[in-house]
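Aim 2 progress update. The chain analyzed this quarter is reproduced below.
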Amino acid sequence: MTSIPDLDQLNPEQLRALAAQLLQRVSALDEQVETMGKTVQVMDKKIHNDKTLIEKLSHEIAQLKRFKFAKRSEQMSPEQASLLDDLIDTDIAAIEAELESLQVTPAPTQEKQKPKRRALPPEFPRTLIHHEPDNTECACGCALKRIGEDVSEKLDYTPGVFTVERHIRGKWVCDSCETLIQAPVPAQVIDKGIPTAGLLAHVMIAKFADHLPLYRQEAMFGRAGLVIPRSTLAQ
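Predicted structure tokens:
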């Protein structure tokens, strides 16, 4: 801490120097106070803008929740939804622009490869199941002619042995009126899936009744000739 000099012992030149020094210090303090005041104003403005943006986004989120989860009587009209979509698109565009300005090196995006279903092994025994129309006579009175077939394979399993059900659906057409008739697709437990009800029942009974973990079932299926991934069994 600086000691205060005795003013009575100072001559006029020393008093003038002391006064100039004090004025210079007061001027520096004034500049610091002014700078701090401007900084506080900028921070207050930024806080106000951020608070306004948060309130706006909170309102839009509440409107979206109402639009998606509310009762029909409380849901917004299509006109209101379109206005809200415009606001959301504007906000998303602004946020994306800000993120692009902050991002120095964008991370490379890798396209997710869609897994391909492998063909069932040809060495598995196959059971042919034919599906044909009950009536092969056209409504116009002509006899239908078989022109082809659709074939789909379903994977079945009995303990230790895989078998394949080969479903053959013949196509019958009338030469006169060009009417096409085909037996409907049999009902499946999993739409467009290849496991039969027997295979699904075996997996679920082994898992939940016999408490056999999926990784052990995966190994058992591998010894039987076909490795079924654990993720597929879990799904």
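DSSP finds five helices and four strands in the chain. The two ends are 76 Å apart (CA to CA). These observations will guide the mutagenesis experiments scheduled for the next reporting period.
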